[in-house]
Amino acid sequence: MIYVNWYHHNVPKILAIFSFIINPLFIYLVLTKSRSQMGNYRFLLIGFAVFDMVYSMAELLTPIAVLNSGYGFVTFITDGPFFENLEYGLHGVSSRCCFVSMSYAVLIIHFVYRYLILFYPHHVDKMLKPLGIMAMTLFFLTHGAFWTWICEECLAPNEEIRDIIRPSFLEVHHVNSDYISLLTGQYRLDWYIFLNRIPMYCMTVYFVLGYKIMKKMNESQAMSNISITLNRQLFKALVAQTCIPMFASFLPTIIAWYAPIFLINLTWWNNYVCNICLSAFPLIDPIVVIYFIPNYKNTVLVWLRLRKQKVVTTTISMVSAPTM
């Protein structure tokens, strides 16, 4: 084990434990407290929660840290079942990093679903039929596989790289980096730009579809007030969900990747900010959705005895509206 500091060693574990508590709670709320208008969108929310728990499991199995060295960065395994084996450890670090890319893919799927609801409502159900599920799964896995390939083919260290980073490892962590599973980006600006292509295209999709969704909701006259309100709530939640990886993974990693080019040592940033932000994503994500969906939020407030349960008489609207 490589012990960086108490904060780095314990906070991701604490966040993962809370993730295993909050996400099952979120799944229960989706299954029991969702409005009928939400329709099959509930299953995408449940899928997101399951992914968050798997993400947290990866955090526990493959804890990582980052060290700046010269003109580059080194991401290495610090503990866990893969720590002692160089080959398995390399696969573990690569797989751990690919969860960031897969979180982008999950968000794209959500944006596409919300886009279809407003623009092509008759095609929405196709997404959750066998062919649609296969397409979404393939898209999701392709994101992860491509990122894993980049890590193992482009960032795996050779002997020259290990010679470069060995002094820094000995100085900072007092260990020989030859026996540590790690990924490294050194000197070559083209790899930095290549690494950013997936995040940049994802952010472009978010902004383009988000703008079109927001514009359509402002112009829509065909849906009932209930459907419009629920669409707005879900879209706000989706925007907040998008901001989480943007500020918790995209911006911190961009800073971590490009700072070494200008000889700025941000080891402290990577281990105190970047890694912790990545660990917090699976926990914050369901909390954001709960906050923006009144049914979920009110239920939690009642459970916490911060609000009294209200008995509400509802009337059934006869205006047809597409499910969410």
Automatic annotation (TrEMBL):
The chain crosses the membrane at residues 14-31, 43-66, 93-116, 128-150, 191-213, 234-257, 269-293. It comes from Caenorhabditis briggsae. The gene is srj-5. It holds the Pfam family 7TM_GPCR_Srj. Keywords: Membrane, Transmembrane, Transmembrane helix. InterPro entries: 7TM_GPCR_serpentine_rcpt_Srj. This is Protein CBR-SRJ-5. The lineage of its organism: Eukaryota, Metazoa, Ecdysozoa, Nematoda, Chromadorea.
